[in-house]
Description:
By secondary structure, the protein is an alpha+beta fold.
Amino acid sequence: MTTIAEELAAWALGVRAERVPPEVRRAAARHLLDALGNAVAGARAGAADAAVRTASAMGPGDALVIGHPGRVSRSAAALANGVLIHALDFDDTHAGGLVHASAPVVPVVLAEGGEVSGAEALTALAIGLETICRLGAAAPHGFHAVGLHATAACGVFAAALTAARLRGLTVDETVNALGIAGSRASGLLEFLNTGSSTKQLHPGFAASDGLTAAALAAAGATGPSTVFEGEYGLYRALARRDADRPAILDSLGERWEATRITVKPYPACQLMHAQLDAAHKARAELGAVEDVRGIDEVVVEAHPDAASIVCAPGKETPRSAYDAKFSLPWSVAAMLLDGQVTVATYDRIDRPEVLALAARVRTEVVDFGGVAADQPGRIRVRTASGTTVSAEVPRSGGGPDDPDLDRLVSAKALGNLGPGGEEIVAAALGLADAPSTAALLGALSLSARGGISTFKGSDHDEL
Length: 463
């Protein structure tokens, strides 16, 4: 029997751009645009300055860093752009795999896609998105349960496969690239216990390491073809389970998980988006400001797999802005008080009124079944005046079945991109019909020369 890596390699190199279903091309373009907008917003906020400075110090090259006027090596650009896309935790999530799909893959397309058609670049992106989604969904909550970030553990393989496709590697070389990438699969979740921001770096590491793995394979380095199912392969070593071959390979190229990725309306952990949507509904029903400020108690239901990440003891008093993005009590309190959660929400985590309300938010762990990122949102609010409000949503907004998805993506991107963003929107959404990626890369370069990096500290207008 062929190995999983051999099957993935043969599929990824054999996909013909013209045979990719239209809905898959549209999804890939949508997530490309969302990722670029998130990166620009991250550059504007200075949220990835350390990664950008580090990439610049790694030496010159031919690859762009979003929001930065210079050119650096491709691996350095992949590092910086992966961090930029993920820095605000505003980037997309595949619920089944609990992975940020675009952040490890889009940087590889930007770095390696300069000499291919727009359709080929978009096809490589779709392949990368499909790969990370399937690898993550083959071990639901498996990586997180042992303290690893699934985006990092699975993203390096998606990045390697994307780079292999764009570089024109052979099947054997691509299998080696996947095998090499396995030795870079990691991503510790210890940041949850300290409030540090190492999670921001994970997609950048994955993108850069995946690209490097493909380059090493092209130069003759080898890796184990059993990197997924082997005794010391990805799943047994890092998720403590056997590889689920059918989950990874069944209907590959026919059923596309890349069309099942959620776009985030809020720059915070996906595991509390449904609760934020429910809190938004409750806020509208409360109406009077005095009722909001006089809330006695808030009860929010949470999936068991989400509880340890966003509802753990002490989460009501976040230690940093990044920590607040993983605090259900604090973020729900901000939503109830402000009626919105934006990038600017997390600029001040010491607001007394938010901290006071967060202390009155109680979570109930409820096993809804299914995966945590596709849970319903349920909230009950009781005020001092005797008003009681309950609100519920079946799942978070921004998902593939959200009828308002296209409007959300466009509005969010334009808000994130700022002045002149229309050119990037047009280039990203029209990439399938473009002769090359030149127009997209040119629009990003013009934005950098226009001063994206000077946006730091300016007012935010994101959704």
